[in-house]
Amino acid sequence: MTQLYRLQLDSEAVELIEDMMIEAGALSVYINSDNNLPPVDPMKKMAPVYGEHIEAIFDSQPDLSMWARDDVHNLHCEPVEDCDWVSRSQQNLPSVDAGIFRIYGGHAQPALHAGRINIEMEAATAFGSGHHETTKSCLLLLERVLRQLQPNSRHQSYLDLGCGTGVLAIALSKATKATVIASDVDPVATRITMENAQKNHVQTSIETVTAAGVNHRAIHDNGPYRLIMANIMANPLIALAPAFSKLVSINGDIILSGILNQQAQKVRATYVNQGFRFIHKITDGEWTSLHMKR
């Protein structure tokens, strides 16, 4: 790993020192404002904020002699601590509670509680860590559906379309003990889903499929589905409505998410026209998630 160095100094000549740091190859420049405005990174070409304390990060030890100026004070340079910044950031990432489900990072192993379904998901993983509002809403709607499932639910089929990291597929698998098809258009997503399934010890009950929409034999062969969960976006959900109506079993459920609030009525109307009836919705911030039944 490249050793980084932090150069710190105080100066009234902020604009001049900033330019000198950039010319000297600084990776970033930070100005601590003395006028109650937020500090900014001038490397982002934002309007300069003038202050006295300036810090810069270099990928090699800077020559301090070039900063020995009358308008520079409290000059100091030190190596930046070599650490795993991803792990450190994860330590500050709280677990997510969504009804009976808890999503947590490996750094924060939760205590076991009867009735609680724990899902381990690292923040560094692509496609999200389960902290987004749409994921939490999907899990809350899933809990509502689970209360209605019959004892033979493990013999029924479930689909997580647009699985991302596999949070919803893993939740379904742990809750129902059934086989879950987890599909995504991105092969990286399906690979990560299987890695997370292994981490959560449900890899034998999750089948990953890389496909656009429902265009895969495995998706059709495993239907009809007792429940389909699709946390994608409004326009793809609208386009998929006819296909979903054929894939969901009679009296089966569908959970739709990734829908901006202003798009929710259009998505809902589209699915009503395909023979679904509205059951419940959750709005969290700017996002709406829908539970509908065929």
SSE layout and pairing:
Elements: E1 5-11, H1 14-23, E2 28-33, E3 51-58, E4 72-79, H2 85-91, E5 96-98, E6 101-104, E7 117-120, H3 133-146, E8 158-161, H4 167-176, E9 180-184, H5 187-199, E10 206-210, H6 217-221, E11 225-231, H7 234-247, E12 248-260, H8 264-272, E13 277-284, E14 287-293
Parallel strand pairs: 6-7, 8-9, 8-11, 9-10, 11-12
Antiparallel strand pairs: 1-3, 1-4, 2-3, 5-6, 12-14, 13-14
Helix pairs in contact: 3-4, 7-8
Description:
The chain has about 290 residues and is α/β, with parallel strands linked by helices. About 35% of the residues are buried. It has eight helices and 14 strands. Mean pLDDT is about 85; it is low at about 35-50. Helix 7 (about 235-245) runs parallel beside helix 8. The chain folds into two domains: about 5-80; about 95-294, Rossmann fold. It is about 30% helix and about 30% strand.
From the structure above, extract its key features.
single chain; 294 residues; alpha/beta; Rossmann fold; 8 helices; 28% helix
Brief digest:
With 294 residues, this protein is α/β, with parallel strands linked by helices.
Strand order of the largest sheet: 10-9-8-11-12-14-13
Mean of all residue-level pLDDT scores:
83
CATH class of the largest domain: Alpha Beta
Find the count of extended strands (DSSP E, 2+ residues).
Answer: 14
The number of domains? 2
Order of helices and strands: EHEEEHEEEHEHEHEHEHEHEE
* CATH superfamily (homologous) name of the largest domain: Vaccinia Virus protein VP39
Q: How big a fraction of the residues is strand?
A: 25-35%
Radius of gyration from the alpha-carbon trace, in angstroms: 25 Å
Biggest β-sheet, characterized? 7 strands, mixed
Name given to the CATH architecture of the largest domain: 3-Layer(aba) Sandwich
Work out the helix count.
8
Query: What shape does the CA trace take?
Result: elongated
CATH topology-level fold name of the largest domain: Rossmann fold
- Return residue spans where pLDDT drops below 50 for at least 5 consecutive residues: 34-50
End-to-end span in angstroms? 55 Å
Structural class: alpha/beta
Assign a percent range to the helix content. 25-40%
